[in-house]
Amino acid sequence: MPRRTDLNCRAGSPNPAQQAEPAPNSGRKHLRRLDRITVQGGPLYYLTCCVDERKPVLACDLVAGVLVEAWTAAPDVYGWAVGRYSVMPDHIHFFATPWREDPRSLSDFIKNWKGWARHRIRERQGPIFRWQPEFFDHVLRSCESYGQKWDYVRMNPVRAGLVANPDDWRYQGELVEIAW
Q1: CATH for 105
Q2: Which residues, at least 6 apart from 73, have a Cβ–Cβ distance to it below 8 Å?
Q3: Cβ distance 99 to 1 under 8 Å?
Q4: What is the DSSP string of 85-131?
Q5: What is the pTM of this model?
Q6: Do the domain assignments include residue 9?
């Protein structure tokens, strides 16, 4: 399995963002996903996925276990590795990078990963669980950006009043060390 080893913290330049367009059936505008990104060692994404209607159902051992199980299988199943992550009650943040030469596209990875996780969560928790159809992604451009984003993610449980110390939040961790 290849590892990311570009320790000089240099990222390539993504193609210019395309014009905003209305999201299907929402009337909201969002930026289209970039078709192609070239970064030495592969791009590193900061990703956020939310539960439909922001229902607080994720931060429990059963659901967090399903999410970690799916992320652990992601390199083999989708060609993507998940590094650091935080599971909040109604949303998740995680960092991911392509992990093999033929990974699925980011959109396919997230769509299929969310589908698999939804199915497993429904098996264990009941048929009501749904993700919001969209997700947020941000291409990190430097090791400083990675550190800043992780600091923000790590402090989320503190800002939400769930714990006093971020190290006390049991639903965050690192699955694969992604050198940046």
Answers
A1: 3.30.70.1290
A2: none
A3: yes
A4: EEE-SSEEEEEEEE-SSSPPPHHHHHHHHHHHHHHHHHHHH-TT--B
A5: 0.78
A6: no
Angle between helices 61-77 and 106-125 (to 10 degrees): 140
Q: What is the pLDDT of residue 42?
A: 79
> Average pLDDT of the chain?
81
Report yes or no on 90 lying in a domain.
yes
| Domain around 133 | 44-174
Could you give the number of structural domains in the chain? Answer: 1
Cβ contacts of 44 within 8 Å, gap of 6 or more: 4, 11, 83, 95, 96, 97, 139, 140, 146, 178, 180
Q: How far apart are the first and last CA of the chain?
A: 17
Residue 53: DSSP 8-state: G
Residue in the structure block whose two tokens are 């995680």: 94
In a domain, 111, yes or no: yes
The more confident residue out of 24 and 42 is 42
Residue 95's CB is within 10 A of a number of other CB atoms, namely 24
Q: Is residue 64 in some structural domain?
A: yes
pLDDT at 107 over 70: yes
Classify residue 143 by its DSSP letter.
Answer: H
Residue with tokens 């990190």: 140
Closest CA to 109 of 63, 66, 57, 73: 73
